[in-house]
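ok here's Surface antigen:
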Amino acid sequence: MQKQLVSHFKHKILLFLAPYLAFFLVLLLIVMALFYQNNNNDCQSTDTTVTVTTSADKEVVAKSIHDNLKKISGVTEAGIAGYLGNTENESGFNASIVQSNATFNESTAMNASISGYALGLNQWDNSRRVELLNYAKSQDKKWSDAGLQLDFALNHDGTNADLLKQGLKMTNVNDATEFLRAKWERGSAGTTATRQSYARAWYAKFASSSSNTAVDTATNGTETTQNTDNTTNNSNGCATNVAQGMGTSGAPVKEIPSAYKSKIKDTNFTATSSSNTYPFGQCTWYTYNRMQELGTPVENALGNGADWGANAKAKGYKTDSQPHVGWAVSFSQGADGADPTYGHVAVVEAISDDKTHFLVSECNVVASETGTVSFRELTAGQGVTFIQGK
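and the structure:
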């Protein structure tokens, strides 16, 4: 009788606890799922859907690569052409090639200390070669799969993937080609002209029907689209609220205002520099490029736009509170509508005839993070520092 009572009591307890146990089990599964998600590398894409056509015809392979790259946000035809020019020079679009047409030997290839045994479309060597092979094994694919190699280059080549994407977003064919050669491929400097020649040919073949303004400016050197006024544009790094009526005219336009056209001699606003380490499309990135083009360069690592004035002065640059043609201009937080956290930076292009206004060229004010250059007429005021390049 006592055993029956104990058994009955246990049964009652289990019935009572069952819904609570189920609840805690579900809760545990949710916590485990969140833990797994948060410990994944969210900054690295794991998309392996890149498919590149295998063909002995390099144009077919190049077109397939081109179409895959076009799917990436912010990529330009100029940047793609730069990548294709480098790839043609490296491998002739042969994904299975080993440097110097050597026979593939896995033990040699897996030794990261061995140089001069590069593989694939972009001739990965040393540790990058080993990482490519390991990634191929993790995907249960052949290392010579062109789609796998492009996926590796874009998503799994460590910080090199970020460099590739930076080059792919550049707006000048020659500059994109050289940036990718020097910073990403790390190829021989003596091949620059050849790579650029290949790149221009691919640009002419694939970009002719594009309506991307970044593509147009890659060869034209000037922005010819209609003037565009934006009301707001906020972006990490530098931003400008253009709804505040800055200066006298204040509104950003994508063409040089007629009153200033005769004053500006160098209109190559799309020039980019392979030494630029500022984030693509930001005001800092553009200002660095433009100052290099004008022959009065500034250095990397000057900080956010608001920081340039103080940092440049501390590094020995000449600064002033009044505008000078060809100088950079740093806007402190909130000055002339600059971002309240990051500030802004631009380049002084011209001064009005009556000396009361000045025109700046800048980036990240129109069409955020696309590299689009625009112009504004401003007046000198509080929170503005002008910086002479060296």
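+1. The chain is about 40% helix and 10% strand.
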